[in-house]
Structures are given as C-alpha cells and as structure tokens.
C-alpha cells in the first residue's frame, strides 16, 4: 500500500441491507497482549483482520511466542517466550504496544519498550501507566527513548487514576493479576473492552472483580493457565455503520451488534430523528426523511465515545440546524474538520468545541485521513456528498476497519479501493 492508495466513493446512495459486526479491535489488542502472561496455550476467537492485530501478532512472535492464525481464530502458546525486549520498530507502529508492559513485567519481572506511537489526536502520554507500575513496585528508567521496567516481584497497592484511562486501567489490571496481594484500581475506566479483558484473565485463573465499574479489585495469583475466549463485537464499528446509515437516509440492519454498549449513540440517533429498533442482537437504523442537528459531548464510557466523535460530526454536516460538539477526552481530535470544510461543510472550531451548521449538500473532493476515526468520518462524508470523493491515507483506516470498502459495498455503497498508479 502507498500513500496514493485511496477509496473512491460516488455519494448520494442510501445504505441498505444487513451486515454482521466483527470483533472489537480495542478488546482484541489488550487480550492478545495478555496472552504473554499465560504459561500455556490460549485460543482467541472473533479476532478482526486489522493492521493493528497483525502488528500485535508480529510483536508476540518477536518475543518468542508461538502464534497460529486461522481466520478469526488466533492460537497463542506463550510458554516458550524467550525475552522481554519489544522491538522498537514494532512499538512505534501503534499505541497498543504499550499493553505489553504490564504483562511482561508481571510474568518476567522486566520489560523494555520504546515510547509507543499513536494517532495525532493528542499528546497521548503514558504517565498514568508508569506511575501505577511504580506503585506496584516496578523500577522504571527512561533513556535514549527506551523505557526499562524491572521488578523482583510486584506487590498489590491501591492506585487512583487521575482520569479513567482505558489503557492504563488495562495495563495495571494485567500487571496486578500476577502481583503479590490485592490491588485496587480506583477511578478506573469502565469501557466494555475492559470487562472483556477481565473475563479473559479470569478464564486463565486470575481473580479480577469489578471490571466495568469505577473500582476494580485484583487479587494476584502465581500463575495463569491457558483458556479459550471469544472477543466481544466492535461497538465503534457498529456505531460507525449506524451513523452512516442515518447519514445516507438508508435502512440498515447490524447483526450481532453490541446494542447494550451503544446506549449513548442510539440515544443521539433517536434525538436526531432516526428510527432505531433493537431486536435481539440485531440493530435496525432508518432515517429516510432527514434528521435534526443535535449537540454532543464525548466522555468516558458510558458517555458518547470519543472514537465516534468524527463520524458523528460528518453526519451533522447535513443536519437541519446547528450542532455543538465538545471533545472532552483528547485535546487534538479535530484533524478531520479541515477536510470536511473542503467538501463544503460549515464548521468552526474553538479549542475542544466544534460548531457544525448544517448545509444542504456536501460536494465530493480529494481528502486525506490523518487518523483512524477521522478517516472513517471522511468516508461517511463521501457517502453523503454529491459527486466523487477520494479518501487518501488508507493505512490509518485499515488499522481499525476490516475491509471497509467491502463492508459498505455489501450495503449498496458505490466505493472502490484504488491502488496507486491505477486510473480510478
Ligand atoms: C484507548 O486509547 C483506545 N485505544 C482509543 O481508541 C480510545 O479513543 C481511548 O481509549 C478512549 O476511549 C485502544 O484501546 C487500543 P486513554 P488510550 O488512556 O488507552 C490521557 C481508536 O480509535 N492519558 O483512555 O490511549 C490521554 O492523553 C483509539 O480505536 C494521560 O494523560 O486512551 C487522553 O487525553 C483511538 N496519561 C485520555 O487520558 C496516560 O498515562 C484518555 O486516554 C494515559 C492517558
């Protein structure tokens, strides 16, 4: 893939039909990282085919784990892990590499990582992770861009997070699983992906209680054994498609949608006038006769997810009225605004607040994604726009959406992936 690869979209077609929701990236990544703590074999089902998953598998193999993949099933044998230095080039390719710290120091008493990469959605520090590991007894030194953690043995502590950080909650929950004694994580994040990770750890013999609430209690054990686990469906992918259905005036059924985890999103869809029906694990979204502008603020779960802020904004660009959107989780998550303006949107930004005035139409343009969810927003805008839109920066989008063009084509969208050098 090169920077010239793009999605080419002919907009104005309502999405219709049904698709099945695949496994959650943000559950699969910490769970795959957690397999390094297990002295045995783990069978993980429902793993999405994403670039970030491919990178995580490369990291596990680089550490010496045996990893076999058969479609959505990944089998990890971590009994044979030989060392704990995570290759810097792999670390830099995604933020989730930070999830290796807790598991490796918990099982082996040492880990060396480089500062993780990440989206351009903010500075994305890791101070909560490092502070919590120090509280559990790790010695941490940073030199030449590397972070080295050592601990003869981790010891349970009460850790209070300054902010309910998803990654810090997950990293510290994994580290505490093999620590001596009891750890309490207070002001913990409550995302469903954290609950899924706790389910996996407990299936391996850990003793984690309270995941999904703001205080998690982990009683350390000496060893973890192999287990089988199925990843929960991806609420952000489901939310993205639901917003796309509403934005194109379509009628879409999302099978296997984690509707229990989409409360804030479904509420906004209904507030704007979309018809939303839940029957079992199927979610229907219809918005044939347009929709009203609604305000929105992002917040830690169960608030409106920051990962759907950009797709939500794209949807609001053609709403009747004005929508005020406030991004409370990341300090720089409006990189998609400039590209939406190129398509005729009317948006003004002041620090963490964006004011979106609905316009009668967007017009197709050449736009570039600068991060994963911002890219999804540009695809959604292309589906809404008159004419042809080309969305570049597919390497961002492929990190979090599995074959997005095929998924949307199954719903009637006119979208193709053009490779560089091909005349689209
Ligand atoms: C996870 O990122 C997700 N990634 C993100 O999804 C998601 O947007 C985010 O949680 C919030 O829900 C994965 O799970 C792999 P945080 P994470 O720690 O853990 C600050 C996507 O598109 N902070 O909850 O990195 C941080 O800067 C991605 O799938 C510190 O200050 O997010 C941010 O402002 C994007 N110090 C806030 O907390 C720290 O040590 C929330 O970050 C850690 C975080």
Task: Report the CATH topology name of the largest domain.
Answer: UDP-n-acetylglucosamine1-carboxyvinyl-transferase, Chain
Low-confidence stretches: none
* CATH architecture name of the largest domain: Alpha-beta prism
Distance between the termini: 15 Å
State the major sheet.
Answer: 4 strands, mixed
Total individual domains: 2
List the total number of helices: 14
Average pLDDT across residues? Answer: 94
How many β strands by DSSP? 23
Give the fraction of residues assigned to helices: 25-40%
- Cα-atom radius of gyration: 21 Å
Structural class: alpha+beta
CATH class category of the largest domain: Alpha Beta
What is the strand content?
Answer: 15-25%
Q: What hetero molecules are in the model?
A: ligand EPZ
Instruction: Label the overall shape.
Output: elongated
Multimeric state: single chain
CATH superfamily of the largest domain: Enolpyruvate transferase domain
Adjacency order of strands in the biggest sheet? 21-22-1-23
């Amino acid at each position: 893939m090169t920077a010239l690869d793009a999605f080419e979209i002919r907009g104005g077609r309502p999405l219709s039909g049904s698709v099945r929701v695949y496994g959650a990236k943000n559950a699969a990544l910490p769970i795959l990282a957690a397999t390094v703590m297990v002295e045995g074999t783990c069978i993980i089902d429902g793993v999405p085919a994403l670039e970030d998953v491919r990178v995580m598998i490369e990291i596990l193999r680089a550490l010496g784990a045996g990893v076999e993949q058969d479609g959505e099933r990944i089998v990890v044998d971590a009994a044979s892990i030989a060392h704990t230095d995570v290759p810097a080039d792999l670390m830099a390719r995604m933020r989730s590499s930070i999830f290796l710290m807790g598991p490796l120091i918990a099982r082996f008493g040492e880990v060396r990582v480089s500062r993780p990469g990440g989206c351009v959605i903010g500075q994305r520090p890791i101070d909560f992770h490092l502070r919590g590991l120090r509280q559990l007894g790790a010695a941490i030194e940073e030199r030449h861009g590397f972070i080295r953690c050592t601990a003869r043995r981790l010891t349970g502590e009460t850790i209070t997070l300054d902010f309910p950080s998803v990654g810090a909650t997950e990293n510290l929950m994994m580290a505490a699983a093999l620590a001596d004694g009891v750890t309490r994580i207070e002001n913990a994040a409550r995302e469903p992906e954290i609950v899924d990770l706790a389910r996996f750890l407990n299936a391996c013999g850990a003793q984690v209680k309270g995941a999904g609430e703001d205080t998690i209690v982990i009683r350390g054990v000496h060893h973890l054994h192999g287990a089988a686990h199925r990843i929960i469906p991806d609420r952000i992918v489901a939310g993205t498609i639901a917003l796309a259905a509403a934005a194109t005036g379509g009628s879409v059924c999302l099978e296997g949608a984690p509707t229990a985890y989409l409360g804030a999103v479904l509420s906004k869809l209904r507030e704007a006038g979309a018809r939303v029906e839940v029957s079992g694990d199927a979610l229907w979204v219809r918005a044939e006769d347009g929709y009203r502008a609604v305000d929105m603020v992002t917040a830690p779960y169960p608030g409106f997810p920051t990962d759907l802020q950009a797709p939500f904004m794209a949807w609001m660009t053609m709403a009747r009225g004005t929508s005020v959107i406030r991004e409370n989780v990341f300090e720089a998550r409006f990189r998609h605004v400039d590209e939406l303006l190129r398509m005729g949107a009317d948006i003004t930004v002041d620090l963490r607040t964006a004011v979106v005035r609905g316009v009668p139409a967007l017009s197709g343009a050449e736009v570039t994604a600068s991060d994963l969810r911002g890219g999804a927003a540009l695809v959604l805008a292309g589906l809404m726009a008159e004419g042809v839109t080309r969305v570049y920066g597919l390497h961002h989008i492929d990190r979090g959406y599995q074959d997005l063009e095929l998924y949307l084509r199954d719903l009637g969208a006119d979208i193709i992936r053009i490779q560089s050098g091909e005349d689209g």
